[in-house]
Design a protein that fits this description.
Chain lengths: 56, 270
């Protein structure tokens, strides 16, 4: 899959390597900004309040 | 290359090869399975890496982010704070009368700063109104809106994370009876002394009562109650730390000597 993506990227080798790095960086940003904060609600490490007081 | 690796099931594939021979190299069942398992494998490896990244984000990066925001909050509070940065008189030399009790600010606004020397000489964390994720996940200690303000007779209760997002109460179990806990608000400094802790189930809201766990009793003392997860890296229980008010001094009297250096540092940085 990743090999297929790499083969189908346009441009010479160095451009494709650069594109890959940009894609990986974009994926990381998306994960840190949206995926991880959302997923964090399913972990229980952050339950430090008593009862239902924390409900908005 | 693929032809040479396929040794098993060659009789089936050779029979099919005769039927499906076309202009391109025929796609055999084993090729399809290999392709699918390769994609599946890559996706599973990706999922594994993403999960590891999540663990790193949750246990490390949220602390980095929260620490930066909390330092900023402490600094902006210290900048607005008026009053000398050095103690005017030795501790407990002057009786400043009953403590001034401020009014609770709106949700998300800052009440003050908490100093806990037991948690480290540089432990300065903001206390914010509200206890939902919006407060606790970035700004540290959250004040239960249903409880009193610092200095009031009754219960001043705050929550904080044991792990992740600054881990403001990570060392709550290291408090020793007699340890000082200082709360600084715009009005002054409230000195609490740690009394005891208690481990309870998560639904025990009675720890937030004016006299903790005693319903219908008129409070006589000023209590500081801190709640956090228990055990560390778990949330099956809550650890509660109770402290009682020991003294109060107005902002104009300067900070208690034990935290004078930290107060000055917080303002100096701003």
């Amino acid at each position: 899959m990743y090999a297929w993506i790499f083969r189908n990227l346009p441009g010479p080798l160095w451009v494709r390597i650069l594109t890959c790095l940009v894609l990986v960086a974009a994926a990381l940003v998306l994960m840190v900004q949206f995926l991880f904060p959302w997923f964090s609600q399913f972990t229980t490490l952050t339950d430090s309040t008593i009862g239902l007081v924390q409900q908005p | 290359m693929a032809h040479q690796q396929t040794t098993t099931g060659s009789s089936v594939s050779s029979a099919r090869r005769g039927q499906e021979r076309g202009p391109r190299r025929p796609l055999r069942a084993s090729d399809v399975i290999r392709k699918i398992s390769q994609i599946l494998g890559e996706l599973l490896i990706t999922a594994g890496i993403v999960l590891l990244l999540f663990v790193g984000w949750e246990l490390w990066w949220t602390n980095v982010e929260a620490d930066a925001k909390q330092t900023e909050a402490v600094q902006s509070f210290a900048q607005d704070f008026t009053g000398p940065m050095t103690p005017a008189a030795p501790d407990a030399a002057v009786d400043y009368g009953p403590p001034v009790v401020g009014t609770a600010p709106g949700y998300g606004e800052m009440i003050g700063i908490m100093y806990v020397p037991r948690f480290g000489a540089d432990y300065t964390r903001p206390i914010i109104e509200g206890t939902d994720a919006g407060v606790l996940d970035t700004l540290g200690l959250g004040h239960y809106g249903t409880t009193s303000m610092p200095g009031a007779v009754g219960n001043f209760a705050v929550a904080g994370h044991r792990q992740t997002h600054g881990a403001v109460l990570d060392n709550i179990h290291t408090l020793v009876p007699g340890d000082k806990i200082y709360v600084q608000t715009a009005d002054g400094y409230y000195t609490y002394v740690f009394r005891n802790n208690q481990i309870v189930l998560p639904d025990r809201t009675d720890v937030l009562m004016p006299v903790p766990t005693q319903a219908g009793v008129t409070p006589k003392e000023s209590i500081l109650t801190m709640t956090s997860c228990n055990p560390r890296f778990g949330s099956q229980e809550r650890i509660i730390a109770y402290s009682t008010l020991d003294g109060w001094q107005p902002a104009s009297a300067g900070p208690p000597s034990e935290i004078a250096a930290q107060v000055a540092q917080a303002q100096g940085k701003g």
